[in-house]
Write a structure and sequence with these properties.
The chain is α/β, with parallel strands linked by helices. It is built from 6 helices and 5 strands.
Length: about 170
């Protein structure tokens, strides 16, 4: 268990704005070394300057980019103590109007990126001896529905199912 976050290495995906920016700000204000990721170089640079954190432009829907994020965290932060898998979207589309592409996009952005990010960072989290994963999920899906967010709700329920604990052997 952490006694303080000061000095810990933290990666926040989707960290350039919104909830991710808020998460990064709290960690940075409490003395953590923070790396934020996102797709917009301009948003990342502005947020990094504002918060005094490091950034890497990356699309965490790509396994290769997730590996780049982990490598960057190893180089710049010396490892990873906390991964905040926050990247996600929430488009509003009526169930009758959702296309196959909409489903792929939402599940890919919300669920696939969670799995790929955790998978890429797992060795560094294990090496820290105190690694933690924080997911930004939602009550939409596992607890309640919301009109227009059926594919979003499914992706968030999937995140929670993914995060069930595995045996230590599965991690190493």
């Amino acid at each position: 268990m952490f006694t303080s976050i000061a000095g810990r290495a933290v990666v926040v995906t989707g960290g350039s704005r919104g909830i991710g920016k808020g998460i990064a700000a709290v960690f940075a204000c409490n003395g953590a070394r923070v790396l934020i990721t996102g797709r917009s170089e301009q948003d990342l640079a502005a947020t990094a300057e504002e918060l005094g954190v490091s950034y890497l432009a990356a699309d965490v829907a790509s396994k290769a980019d997730c590996q780049l994020v982990a490598g960057c965290a190893a180089d710049r932060l010396g490892g990873i103590d906390v991964l905040c898998a926050n990247a996600g979207i929430f488009p509003d589309t009526r169930l009758a109007d959702i296309t196959e592409e909409d489903i792929d996009h939402v599940l890919g952005t919300n669920l696939k990126v969670t799995i790929l990010s955790v998978q890429a960072c797992l060795p560094l989290l294990a090496r820290s001896g105190r690694g933690r994963v924080i997911l930004t999920s939602s009550i939409t899906g596992p607890i309640t529905g919301y009109p227009g967010w059926t594919h979003y709700g499914a992706s968030k329920a999937g995140q929670l199912g993914f995060m069930l604990p595995e045996s230590p052997e599965a991690v190493s």
